[in-house]
Amino acid sequence: MLWVILAVVLAIAEAFTATILVIFFAAGALAAAGAAALGADLVVQVIVFAVVSGLSVGALRPIIMRHARPALETGERPFGIEAIEGSRGTVVEEVSADHGMVKIDGELWQARSVDGQEVFLPGVHVRVVKVRGATVQVWHDDLPDL
Fold this sequence. Notes:
Blueprint: H1 2-15, H2 22-37, H3 42-68, H4 71-74, H5 81-84, E1 88-93, E2 101-104, E3 107-113, E4 125-132, E5 135-140
Helix pairs in contact: 1-2, 2-3
């Protein structure tokens, strides 16, 4: 039962980290719980925990990390929110540090100036620098097409 509790605690701990590492130890703990359920003694359980955890980290983590990288790093075509960064938009409502709206590919987005000091008037073309939740941070559209 202690292995199952350890697995749950480690799985919860993974939710609070950005490493994608702790979850593999949770898998090792579940494997050790399985060994314990089959009647293995403590030494075998610890060995199962270590082997499954080590193999998981060594074999699965590189694959997961490779697929978790942004599309721009991997050379793939970005999609979703990631595809909006770098795109052009037109200011619909004055954009400043506190408020504003831009139209990007026919959709309205809340917008803020990147530096918080620049003000963009309606009709001005801007470039999306960063997406923060449902708000885009924009700057002058003086960059070449990305």
